[in-house]
Amino acid sequence: MADKKKQFTKVNQLRPLDTGLSLTVKVISAKMVAQRGRSQVRFSECLVGDESGIIIFSARNDQVDMAKEGNTLVLSNAKVDMFKGSMRLAVDRNGRAEVVEAAGFSVDESNNLSLIEFEPIDVVV
Fold first, then answer.
1. Rounded distance, CA 112 to CA 18, Å?
2. 80, 67, 8, 7: which is closest to 33 by C-alpha?
3. Cα dist. 99→31, 64, 90, 93, 102 in Å?
4. Among 51, 50, 73, CA closest to 62
C-alpha cells in the first residue's frame, strides 16, 4: 500500500458539514465557555486561523489546554459543525489535535467564516 500524503485544507476552503479535514491553524484567542457535570467536561471556543481566514474552533477537554493564544495547532480528521446557522471547526474522538512549533504565517482576520450565516433548505424530490 502506498503512503498517501495528507492533504491540508485552508480555512477559506471550509464548507458546512465538511469532514476528514487536516488544517494548520494559529490560535488568536480562547474563551472558556463551560465546565459541566461530575466528569468535568471542559469546553472552550477559540478563534483560529491561517493566512486565508479565521473560524471558531470548539475545543473540548484536553484540547482546551492546547488551544492557548499564540499556539499553532495541527488538526487531523477535523470536521465542520453547524451551530445556530454558522460554522464551527471541531475535532471529535476520531480526530487529533496537536501543538506544533510556530508556523511562519500571518493570520488574515478580515475573513471570519463563523460570521457567515447559512440557512437550511429542504429539498422535496
1. 17
2. 67
3. 18, 11, 15, 17, 9
4. 73
Kindly state the cell numbers that stand for 59: 475545543
Q: State pLDDT tens for residues 110-123.
A: 999 898 888 877 88
Per-residue H/E/C for the chain: CCCCCCCCCCHHHCCCCCCCEEEEEEEEEEEEEEEECCCCEEEEEEEEEECCEEEEEEEECHHHHHCCCCCEEEEEEEEEEEECCEEEEECCCCCEEEEECCCCCCCCCCCEHHHCCCCCCCCCC
Alpha-carbon radius of gyration of the chain: 15
Cell of residue 70, nine digits: 499564540
Task: Summarize pLDDT for 58-107 with one digit per residue, the tens.
Answer: 988 888 888 889 889 999 999 999 989 899 999 988 889 898 887 678 88
- Burial track 75-93 (b if 16+ CB lie within 10 A, e otherwise): bbbbbbbeeeebbbbbbee
